[in-house]
Every structure is written in C-alpha cells, then in structure tokens.
Specification:
41% of the residues lie in helices and 17% in strands. With 338 residues, the protein is an alpha/beta fold.
Length: 338
C-alpha cells in the first residue's frame, strides 16, 4: 500500500514514517527543499519535495497514493502572524485535500490538536472528549489552535462533499525524538542539578509519545469504521506537567534540587527574552516566551477511551520509558555531532 506523509521531517511525521516502513508500507515523505533531511534519509522513504502552501507542487506528489497522513502545518504555537498560519495550516490543508481528491487518494488522515477545544479544556475537571465543544478563537495567542480548527473544518467539508474519506486524530502534549517544542524545553530545564520551576502551576496534561500517536494514526487510517470520525490521542493516564518534568529529570540521572520561583518573575523574564529575540529579528523560537509561560497554567487533559473502545488502541510507551528514550536520543545526537 502506498502512503504519503506530509511534514515528514517533523516530530510526529518522522516517527510515522518509521512506523509505516516497519509495518511494510511503501512510504513517500513530503518535505521542503530547505528542511533538514538527515534523519529522513536514513528511513528508506521516498523523499519528494513540495510545499503545501503552493498547490502547484502537490498534484504529482499525491498521484498513486492510497492513504495520506497529513502532519504538515505551521508548528510553532504562539510565534508567527495569522497570514503565516492561514497559508500553511489552513490553506495548506485545503491544498492537500484538493490534490489528494483529484489524485484518486482513498483515505486522508488529518493530524489535528486538542488545542481546538480552546477554553472548554479549562472549565471542567473531567477530561475533554471528542464531543467537547471546539472553542478555539482567533487571537494572536491562539492562532495555532484556531488554524487547526479551520483545517479540521476543511476536512469535514471535503468528507461531506464525498470527495475523499477523512478521519481525524487530535493530539495533546506530544513528545519524542526530534521534538523542538515541549520535550526540548523540559530537557533543557532539567539538565542542571538545580531545576527552577515557575510558580505553583501544575496543570494536567495528556502526554503521549510519538510512537503511540503514529500507531493510532495508522490504525485509524486503515479502519472503515473510523471514516468521518475523530479520535483523541491520550497517553497512559493523566499526569501533571511537573510529573513530566520530574520524569525527564530522572531520565537524565543524578539528584535534582527543585526551586520554586515566583511565576510573575518567571513570566517577566520570559517576556524580556521574547522581546530581545524580536529586536534581533531572529527567526528562531526563544526558549522562553509569553505563550509557553501562559500555557504552564492551562490544562491539556483529554479522554482517549473512544480509540480504545472502537479500535482497540492503547498506548504502549510509559512516561519513564519515553523520557529515557528521549534522553538517550539527545545524548547520541550530541556525540554524533562531535
């Protein structure tokens, strides 16, 4: 079976490429010419170049494909303008849907985010289910979440029109090798003997390893019963953000001293770093910024029981195993660079 993975150099996309190949699929991976292809080249996938924001680059990419796994998007929450998110996440998904439908693709798996639930995630102590209202709003702080919501709506419209069979998975706090966001920051924050923790905020988050995300994505894309349906991806039970950080610290070994600093001071420090980065016109994401500080107080706690009851999926990677694997990957990569 021929599959296409968009965003093949990203955290989720690259793991999906690995799992598909391990299961015997014929894999084509879409990447930009400016992307870092060092890992993708080791997988054995067919690498094709294109840009989801440019429709003309996509028809040949989608031709001959049975299943599209659409992971590509602007993946820098809290950093960027709305036109950037609209072009890459919203229009990019619309372009990929059109190219897939016109190319005769049978199934389209959209990798979405639980962030589309918006404030509904914060109003209840009960984990958010697939029928929780999607309340993501279009604000500078939530462009990523709103763009993901618009991309989902494009998927459902395409499904409604009978152009292609669509399924969606919604991802909460993903972690694993090649993650440049949450995992990277927790690793850096816990690498020293003294760990600074901002305030008393300790929200629940459904942390899930990219291996488990990929396994569910493959299962959903191959199930007839999942056509037109959405599934939350949840890890092994609810953990708090500090649980995650402590697991990362244990994986790095050695005793750690945890020091709580006032949240207001930490937020001010992050704001200064963000403003300094903007003054330098740096294209990179600052290690700390206002977006990440605000999300230290927001919950990403979802119910993943639907995937278990309907598809028999259960996550396999524990927090301890996942963080240990990540630390080993970081250390191996560091040695390889030397």
């Amino acid at each position: 079976m021929k599959t296409l993975v968009t965003g093949g150099t990203g955290c989720i996309g690259s793991t999906l490429v690995e799992r598909l190949i391990a299961k015997g699929y014929d894999v084509r991976a879409l990447a930009r010419r400016t992307s870092n292809l060092s890992h993708l080249r080791t997988t054995g996938a067919e690498i094709v170049f294109g840009d989801i924001a440019q429709y003309d680059s996509l028809p040949t990419v989608a031709r001959g494909i049975d299943i599209v796994f659409h992971c590509a998007a602007k993946g820098t929450p809290g950093c960027g303008t709305w036109p950037e998110y609209e072009a890459n996440t919203v229009k990019g998904t619309e372009n990929m849907l059109r190219a897939s439908a016109e190319g005769g693709v049978r199934r389209f798996l959209q990798v979405s985010s639980v962030g589309i639930y918006g404030d509904a995630l914060q109003r209840s102590k009960v984990a958010a289910g697939e029928h929780t209202p999607c309340e993501a709003r279009k604000t500078p702080d939530t462009y990523y979440e709103y763009a993901k919501l618009m991309a989902e709506q494009a998927c459902w419209e395409c499904q409604k029109q009978g152009k292609i069979e669509v399924s969606v998975i919604r991802v909460p706090a993903a972690y694993g090798p090649r993650d440049k966001l949450l995992t990277d920051r927790l690793y850096i924050n816990t690498v020293l003997p003294i760990v600074m923790w901002p305030g008393s905020g300790n929200p629940r988050c459904s942390v899930v390893h990219t291996y488990d995300i990929a396994e569910l994505a493959i299962r959903v894309a191959n199930s007839d019963k999942s056509v037109g349906r959405v599934y939350n991806v949840a890890g092994l039970g609810a953990v708090t953000l500090k649980d995650f950080a402590k697991a990362m610290a244990r994986a790095q070994g050695g005793p750690k001293i945890w020091v709580t600093v006032p949240y207001s001071a930490a937020y001010l420090f992050a704001a200064l770093i963000e403003d300094f980065t903007k003054l330098r016109r740096s294209k990179g994401i600052p290690f700390l910024n206002r977006y990440y500080m605000r999300h230290l107080r927001k919950e990403f706690y979802v119910d993943g029981s639907k995937a278990k009851s309907e598809l028999g999926w259960t996550p396999e990677i524990s927090l301890e195993d996942g963080t240990r694997q990540y630390v080993e990957w970081r250390r191996h990569r560091k040695k390889a660079v030397r």
